[in-house]
Amino acid sequence: MSATSYTTLAGLVKDPASSGADLYAAAIGLRDSFVRSEHLIGLLPPDAPEVLVAGLRRAGDAGVVDAWLELGRLLTKGAAPWAPYPERDVDAAIEAYQAADRAGSAAGALGWIRAAYFARSTSHATAAATRLAELLAARPDDPDLLLLTGYLTHQGYGHPADPAAAVHHHLAAAEHGSGDAAFELSVLYGSGSGVPADQEESHRWTFRAAELDSARGMANLGGMYATGRGVEQDPAAAVRWYAKAAYRGHAKSAYTAGVMYLVGDGGLPVDEDEAESFFARAEELGFNVDDNLEAMGLSR
């Protein structure tokens, strides 16, 4: 027996008269079936990923811009960490996002530039840098555009690398509220890339990144409190920041918080229930808990 979401979308894809709105709604329903792990219990046929892609393409061609955005996301990240479907295809994801960009979607423009950059697609580098410069010229205070410009400038993607200029862009992005930019500044000051190395400044930006809801900033702040690096060692503060990072989607932080509760790290009370809660969160985010525990000589 197949899930209703599959049969609904498959039927719509076969019907040339299906509307874009109906195709998109049914495609979201099938995507959610993957998120609910229905593929693991035999409710989704082997061709369900292809039907999902076909439905979103049809919806996009019919003028539903959100369908192109969702297709780009799925082809980059999959439905969920435990449901990596449809199969990752960066070039196809870029094409989907570009279709949204041509339809006037700012999210589409950012989507294909990000996808190209993080895949280090050499064939898209010049076009990505050019399109990003156009967007930034129109919206010079946009923190997402400033952050992405900092990434491309630091790595020399689409134009020569300029670490000092990258710091400038990240500073501007952080001033406009970007936690990811604040995190990048913590790394750049820590490594001395584009600025003189300054551990105190690096720690300051780690705090700022955590305050601005950067999961990586929260994770690193947890590490600082766990080890006493730049702050007084405080296991309770460490596990609090790891927990915050975990619920912002940082898988390793969830695992680390679980281990701290499992062993009573730094004088924390042993709490197996709390440990299991964090391990479940880590697994939900795609982290292999059991293998990592075994490597540490631990078990649940």
The succession of helices and strands, N to C, reads HHHHHHHHHHHHHHHH
The end-to-end span amounts to 36 Å
Strand content: under 5%
Radius of gyration: 22 Å
Sequence-ordered SSE layout with sheet pairings:
Layout: H1 4-14, H2 20-35, H3 48-61, H4 65-77, H5 90-102, H6 106-118, H7 125-138, H8 143-155, H9 163-175, H10 179-191, H11 199-211, H12 215-227, H13 235-246, H14 251-263, H15 272-284, H16 289-295
Helix pairs in contact: 1-2, 1-3, 2-3, 3-4, 4-5, 4-6, 5-6, 6-7, 7-8, 8-9, 9-10, 10-11, 11-12, 12-13, 13-14, 14-15
Brief overview, please?
This is Sel1 repeat family protein. This protein has 16 helices and no strands.
Describe this structure in words.
- This protein is mainly alpha-helical and 300 residues long.
- The chain folds into 3 domains: 1-119, no CATH class; 120-213, Alpha Horseshoe (Serine Threonine Protein Phosphatase 5, Tetratricopeptide repeat); 230-300, no CATH class.
- Helix content is 68%, strand content 0%.
- It is built from 16 helices and no strands.
- The protein has helices at 4-14, 20-35, 48-61, 65-77, 90-102, 106-118, 125-138, 143-155, 163-175, 179-191, 199-211, 215-227, 235-246, 251-263, 272-284, 289-295.
- Helix 4 runs parallel beside helix 6.
- It is flat and about 65 Å long.
- The model has no long low-confidence stretch (mean pLDDT 97).
- This is Sel1 repeat family protein.
- It comes from Lentzea tibetensis.
- InterPro entries: Sel1-like (IPR006597), Sel1_AlgK (IPR050767), TPR-like_helical_dom_sf (IPR011990).
